[in-house]
Every structure is written in structure tokens, then in C-alpha cells.
Amino acid sequence: MSLILLSFLGAVSLHSLFVVALPIAFTAFYMYEKNEEEIDALMTDIRSFGCKLKAVISNKLAKPKKG
């Protein structure tokens, strides 16, 4: 994964990255400020779903197979 990220960063000029990333960063902060409660609730739901999924996978991997 890190090699893919490094190859992407090497292929894109720093100026282009700055021109794209700066407006996205400010837009993200603005959108979070406007919809803070909804985004926080969504992130809580996602985290809860992730924890449940992790527990299900852990239980399936931990149980010995019968047969």
C-alpha cells in the first residue's frame, strides 16, 4: 500500500497536488463545520459496524472446525 502511495506521489507534481489538496481541505473543514452532528453520528455508526464486523470475523476464525 505504501509503495502505491509513493508511486502516486512521485507521478504527481507538488504544484498540482497543492492546487488540488488545498481547496479540498478547506471544503472538508467547511462541510464538517456545517454538518458536524450528522458526520459525527455517521462516524459513530461506521465505527460500531466495524467493531461488530471485527467481532464476527474473530469468532469465525477462533472457532475450531468440526468434522
Automatic annotation (TrEMBL):
Predominant location? endoplasmic reticulum
Any matching Pfam family: Reticulon
Keyword terms, alphabetized: Endoplasmic reticulum, Membrane, Transmembrane, Transmembrane helix
**Stored InterPro entries:** Reticulon
Q: How does it sit in the membrane?
A: Multi-pass membrane protein
Q: What domain of life does the UniProt record list for this protein's source?
A: Eukaryota
GO CC, sorted alphabetically, is: endoplasmic reticulum membrane
Q: Where in the cell is it found?
A: Endoplasmic reticulum membrane
Q: Which residues form the Reticulon domain?
A: 2-44
What is the designated name of this protein?
Reticulon domain-containing protein
